[in-house]
Design goal:
- The chain is mainly alpha-helical.
- About 65% of the residues lie in helices and about 0% in strands.
- It is built from 4 helices and 2 strands; from the N terminus they run αααββα.
- α1 packs antiparallel against α2 and α2 runs antiparallel to α3.
- It is rod-shaped, with a radius of gyration of 40 Å.
- The chain starts with a helix and ends with a helix.
Length: about 250
Amino acid sequence: MSFVDEFQVNLESLPNILQKKYALIRDLDKSLQEIVRQNEQHCEQEIEDIKNGVRAGNITPDTSLIRFSDEALDEQKHSIRIADEKVALAVQAYDLVDTHIQQLDQYLKRFDEELRHERENAAAAVLPATSLDGSAKSGRSSEGGRGGRKKTRLATSTAAAAAATEVAAAAAAAANPTGMELDLPVDPNEPTYCFCNQVSFGEMVACDNPDCKIEWFHFGCVGLKEQPKGKWYCSDCAAAKNRRKSR
């Protein structure tokens, strides 16, 4: 069982436990209110009886000798016990919620560590493919012409980069279902391409202009769905080529 499943199981039982404790607190509060009401009536009646006894001369007006009956005192002690029990239940409910909050903090920390490991592994899988792409580019510059250059990147590097990207995206989506932004490390040495200035992923096409500053472009960024037939120029190079023809 993963830590997410474990936390979910523990969390599912929390509402029922809290509901039972709150129901007990509510019942105790009703009992307490009834006992307090009865005790107030008893005390008021005993105070009135004491006043009448003092007026009739049956009771000595000495405050040190005047006290409530044992029954009234027992009611007051019982009220205190019920109040203490209510406080204890409230503390238990608070501690229970606080324990789940602490567990959630621990799970989030473990979640962040696992996600970081997934991204690091995915980045490590992409780096070899990127290095291979760079070697292929440097080799093309020494060829006797651009006519023999492939229109798409090497199949092995494309498949590796695409697979690594999908693994990283799947790991991020599974580990971060809420879409919360996380501060994750990004390899600063990985080269970027295309108008979007992003890393290599999916299918890419190369511009046939030997002086193109960008060289490689993502299919989606240049509106391609399949490999172009014949020579292909990016929009910048195509515009420059048309300007030269119009002169």
